[in-house]
């Protein structure tokens, strides 16, 4: 909703201000200019990106209209789940969580946290590393290195649509200038017509530059910022899991391991120690 609200403010401010200054909104309606700018932008987008990047961008763009999934409640569920798993490991041994890891959808431990089960990326991350802890002989340093590489890959893949949208926004002012130049060429070829008509052609040409800049900085550019923020939020989930599991591998109790994970969260979503403690007890 913030994206739509922001777009409305941009439109009302720019076009409303133009109208209040005495401008005629009808003079800004130039479908041919939009065709040139939009068509050139789409073509450049297809040329400048691989099929993988295009699919990722088209898949990711609708998420800008959705609110953040990574709320305090979701982080509390994540840490409560990790606490339950690590507490079971401490009491009954690593091998007792094998069935939970292999089939988390049927696991009583995971079933208490539907928000985590619904996020297959974070669920896979948790179960993969618990599986390594159960069946592997890797030490904490080796697992940390593997986690860092996987988180880096996740972040790199998430940056593809961000870069695609950002580059598209960067190119729009130039395409606006192209449309304006084409309008000037048309105007110069029409020299000899009455001054009133000549002025109209010049005005129409300048609309191309205006539209290119407005679309770039008022509409497309901000989308890249939103996508970047969403990527950072999703990465923070992985970092929370990483820090918690590594603390457990280094011998800390489940309560302290979860506290390590709590500390890496953003302050806006980080629960207090007491809030998390109460939440964990309620989930038992």
What does this protein look like?
- It is built from twelve helices and no strands.
- It has one domain (31-284).
- The protein is an all-alpha fold.
- It has helices at 2-20, 31-48, 51-60, 72-92, 98-102, 108-111, 114-117, 120-135, 140-188, 195-249, 254-263, 273-283.
Q: How many distinct folded domains?
A: 1
Percent of residues in β-strands: under 5%
Helix fraction, binned, reads: over 70%
Unreliably modeled segments? none
C-alpha Rg (nearest Å) = 27 Å
Total count of helical runs of at least 4 residues: 12
- Principal-axes geometry comes out as elongated
Distance between the termini: 36 Å
Which labels suit this protein?
single chain; 284 residues; mainly alpha; 12 helices; 78% helix; 0% strand
Give the topology.
Layout: H1 2-20, H2 31-48, H3 51-60, H4 72-92, H5 98-102, H6 108-111, H7 114-117, H8 120-135, H9 140-188, H10 195-249, H11 254-263, H12 273-283
Helix pairs in contact: 2-9, 3-9, 4-10, 4-11, 4-12, 8-10, 9-10, 10-11
Describe the structure in brief:
The chain is mainly α.
């Amino acid at each position: 909703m913030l994206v739509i609200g922001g777009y409305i403010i941009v439109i009302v401010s720019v076009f409303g201000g133009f109208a209040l200054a005495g401008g005629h909104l009808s003079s800004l309606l130039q479908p041919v200019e939009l065709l040139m700018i939009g068509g050139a932008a789409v073509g450049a987008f297809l040329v400048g990106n691989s099929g993988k990047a295009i699919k990722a961008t088209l898949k990711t763009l609708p998420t800008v209209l959705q609110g953040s999934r990574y709320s305090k409640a979701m982080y509390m569920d994540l840490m409560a789940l990790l606490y339950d798993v690590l507490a079971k490991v401490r009491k009954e041994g690593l091998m007792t969580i094998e069935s939970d890891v292999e089939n988390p959808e049927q696991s009583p431990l995971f079933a208490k946290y539907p928000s985590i089960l619904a996020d297959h990326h974070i669920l896979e991350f948790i179960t993969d590393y618990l599986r390594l802890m159960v069946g592997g002989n890797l030490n904490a340093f080796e697992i940390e290195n593997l986690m860092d590489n996987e988180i880096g890959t996740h972040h790199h893949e998430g940056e593809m649509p961000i870069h695609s949208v950002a580059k598209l926004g960067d190119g729009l002012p130039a395409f606006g200038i192209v449309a304006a130049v084409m309008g000037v060429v048309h105007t110069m070829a029409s020299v000899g017509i009455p001054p009133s008509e000549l002025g109209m052609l010049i005005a129409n040409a300048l609309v191309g530059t205006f539209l290119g800049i407005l679309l770039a900085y008022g509409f497309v550019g901000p989308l890249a910022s939103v996508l970047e923020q969403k990527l950072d939020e999703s990465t923070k989930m992985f970092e929370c899991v990483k820090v918690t599991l590594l603390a457990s591998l280094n011998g800390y109790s489940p309560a302290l391991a979860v506290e390590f994970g709590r500390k890496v969260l953003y302050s806006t979503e980080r629960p207090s120690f007491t809030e998390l403690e109460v939440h964990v007890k309620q989930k038992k």
